[in-house]
From TrEMBL:
It holds the Pfam family HTH_DeoR. Coiled coil: none annotated. It comes from Enterocloster bolteae 90A9. The keyword Transcription applies. This is DeoR family transcriptional regulator, deoxyribose operon repressor. Residues 4-68 form the HTH deoR-type domain.
Length: 253
């Protein structure tokens, strides 16, 4: 990721936290010219990541609406560290399921190109990242395309997942709660996620620490169904102890 991309991601976080900062204050903070800041803000507006009158929220029509584009850049540095570590867990000959999500989306660009692997996915962004890797055997579970999170979903796709067996699944979750389990942003994701979990030998949750303690509408699994968790070192001590009590292997990166 280039210096400009990192600055833009940091700028978006800053605008959401401190929407009243002036162009000059932003330029001073990022040590660039005011013209550069204006161009960066124009880029965010053009890509629907920021609205001038709604600076405290991601660019979405509704407060609870999930947009892959805005979710992808939230906590990007943490997701990138998680993805790099998770990629190191992949072994020659693995059959992988990459769940639909932004952290798994980052992981898809780190899938080793020197290994013979089979990967099943059902997310457009992940598919586009993997299609150029000629060593991969790529399986795509298609169907109805949900534009907000780039996921495909159908009865036929779920059937394909159920007929497939994977050595590892990298699981995405929008919420992880001690009592209410793992949840996702949309109920239409639930059956696909359940089928993928049932078809996988080793289940690895990849989620940044902001997801822990959160609850979203679609329940798909208990935390105890997970074998390993890869998250960032911002995870609270309470959550670390809870995960240890559940005998789940925890990797902090």
């Amino acid at each position: 990721m280039g210096k400009r991309d990192l600055r833009i991601y940091a700028l978006l976080d800053t605008l959401k936290e401190s929407p009243v900062l002036s162009i000059k204050e932003l330029a001073d903070r990022f040590q660039v010219s005011e013209m550069t800041i204006r161009r960066d803000i124009d880029y965010l507006k053009e890509n629907r990541l920021f609205y001038e009158n709604q600076a405290s929220e991601p660019a979405a029509r509704d407060h609870d609406e999930y947009l892959y584009s805005s979710e992808q850049i939230r906590n990007y540095d943490k997701k990138d560290r998680i993805a790099r570590f998770a990629a190191g867990m992949i072994e020659e000959g693995d059959i992988l399921i990459l769940d639909s999500g932004t952290t798994t989306g980052v992981l898809s660009k780190y899938i080793p190109e020197h290994m013979q692997l089979t990967v099943l996915c059902y997310n457009y962004h992940i598919l586009s990242q993997l299609q150029g890797n000629e060593k991969l055997s790529l399986i795509f579970a298609g169907g109805y395309f949900h534009r907000n999170d780039l996921m495909f979903e159908s009865v036929e796709g779920i059937g394909l997942i159920r007929r497939t067996r994977a050595s590892k699944m990298f699981v995405s979750a929008s919420g992880v709660h001690e009592k209410l389990g793992m949840t996702c942003a949309h109920n239409y994701e639930v059956v696909t996620k359940k089928a993928a979990l049932e078809s996988s030998l080793q289940k690895i949750l990849v989620a940044d620490s902001s997801k822990f303690g959160q609850v979203r509408p679609g329940y798909f699994a208990e935390l105890e169904e997970i074998d390993e968790i890869v998250t960032d070192d911002g995870l609270s001590r309470e959550w670390q102890e809870l995960i240890a009590e559940k005998d789940i292997t925890l990797h902090l990166v």
